[in-house]
């Protein structure tokens, strides 16, 4: 498993609000003492800076945590912000999961669609859009977010595994306990199967708060190895675009599926 592409962007991606906004679960602290409180915020933004969103049950298809292999509901109430605050967890690797309900965005300028699809590695959709006879203005894209966060409680022992999300990024090593000197193995899944040649966008924040963005390419099995550093926290993102056949004039003609994974690598 090797890095197939490491294109350092270092915040040079100039993206429109429509295309650039990631959605992720942002833990206040990715390492929590045993019995402590895991606190995390829903964020929407770019370059690891974003607005804090409240928990709204009507916008959620799935909202759970996995503790010691047991799937549990997250005990949040409508309007909670931070969206997640869970006390008294036993030691281990805790997984936080959130799947949103479908939302839509309207593209009023073709250039924004071109910018978005170039950035997220589906430029093929531009000609496909025209070949389908779709308009270049006023068309809609639907999107679904599949966010996952890994938090170490105590030593954080455990292993990330597929959690049944429609698309997700799975770590092949534990960032809190394993030796990552040769990199962190990851795999991108789509509908439970490896997503070949997936683009992975990695947002990396160092202890000073500086953020670097790099692009990586998975192999035929959806696998890549990412360079990570102690004391840094990470957001991994991989997006899939699926054509939709509209039944009505205002129906979306594309569906994007966003996989996001957040975690940290502890210092020393």
UniProtKB/TrEMBL annotation:
Protein name per Swiss-Prot or TrEMBL? Uncharacterized protein DUF4198
Keyword field? Signal
Q: Which InterPro entries match?
A: DUF4198
Question: Do the record's keywords include Signal?
Answer: yes
Q: What is the annotated signal peptide range for this record?
A: 1-20
Organism for this UniProt entry:
Jannaschia seohaensis
């Amino acid at each position: 498993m090797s890095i197939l592409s490491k294109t350092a962007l270092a915040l040079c991606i100039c993206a429109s609000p429509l295309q650039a906004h990631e959605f992720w679960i942002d833990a206040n602290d990715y390492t929590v003492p045993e019995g402590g409180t895991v606190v995390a915020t829903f964020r929407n933004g770019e370059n690891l800076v974003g607005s804090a969103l409240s928990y709204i049950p009507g916008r959620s298809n799935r909202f759970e945590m996995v503790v010691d292999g047991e799937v549990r509901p997250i005990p949040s109430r409508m309007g909670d912000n931070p969206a997640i605050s869970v006390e008294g967890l036993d030691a281990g690797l805790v997984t936080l999961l959130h799947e949103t309900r479908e939302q839509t965005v309207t593209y009023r300028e073709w250039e924004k669609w071109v910018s978005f699809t170039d950035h997220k590695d589906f430029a093929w959709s531009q000609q496909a859009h025209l070949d389908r006879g779709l308009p270049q203005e006023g068309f809609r894209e639907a999107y679904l977010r599949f966010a996952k966060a890994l938090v170490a409680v105590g030593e954080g022992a455990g292993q990330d595994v597929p959690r049944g999300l429609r698309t997700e990024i799975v770590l092949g090593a534990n960032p809190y306990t394993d030796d990552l000197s040769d990199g962190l193995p990851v795999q991108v899944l789509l509908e439970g199967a490896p997503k070949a040649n997936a683009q992975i966008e990695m947002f990396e924040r160092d202890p000073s708060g500086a953020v670097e963005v790099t692009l990586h390419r998975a192999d035929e099995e959806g696998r890549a190895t990412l360079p990570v550093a102690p004391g840094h926290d990470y957001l991994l993102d991989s997006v899939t675009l699926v054509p939709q056949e509209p039944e009505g004039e205002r129906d979306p003609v594309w569906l994007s599926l966003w996989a996001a994974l957040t975690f940290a690598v502890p210092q020393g």
